Amino acid sequence: MILSLDVGNTQIYGGVFDGPLNKEKMLLSFRRSSKQGSSSDEVGIFLRTVLKENNIDPQQITQIVFCSVVPEVIYSLRGACQKYFNITPFILQAGVRTGLKIKYRNPLEVGADRIANSIAATHLFPNKNLVLVDLGTATTFCAVTADKDYLGGSIIAGLKLSMESLEAKTAKLPSVEIVSREQVLGQSTVESLQSGLFYGHLGAMREIINRISNECFRGEKPHVIGTGGFSSLFDKEKIFDSIIPDLVLKGNLIALAMQQETKK
Asked: Does 113 qualify as catalytic in the annotation?
């Protein structure tokens, strides 16, 4: 079994996979706060506990792969893998084989999660122009050509971050549950916040996707993939051609397989 982890700014998203590449089955998914300062013991004990609580023997984990946009967590997570699983993890980071041609001015600036998403997307949808929208702490947009050129993208504040900012910077606006709304007109403060967050984000995504299509693909419609924790909220809006919440975890697996092929 393979343990795949995505270390984001607010959460660690993990999954346990079993089976051959492209046919692997996710046996378990989980999330945990990725607060800075967590020791390797805290992380290691959590990982072993969440596996045991879901009837997975930690000794069945034979490989661990992760990507991280939080440099401070990498050291603790690497130590946790070595101490609690006796496994040296594969870390998706600059310099590893990805199959992508990074067109960023400084390729080292591209987040590892965006690279993982792009690896998985080009593998699942070969020979297609792609726009990837990852709805996490930030909502990120990536443009990838049919030839696997990673062109770049855009970044905006995510839904939860936007809500927390409104709560923190205003006197009377409360924290609300982030949900999809049938109507844009709210008839209470909570409904007004929810509709503003939902439709504001929807409008921003439509505009950015449209502009990326025109700038990068000469107006030809790319295949648009939604991923991340909030992607399913927009299922009814038909803004995405595919919704794959665990895209980054799949990208980790493919990157791991690439490294193993290189070593043969």
From this structure: yes
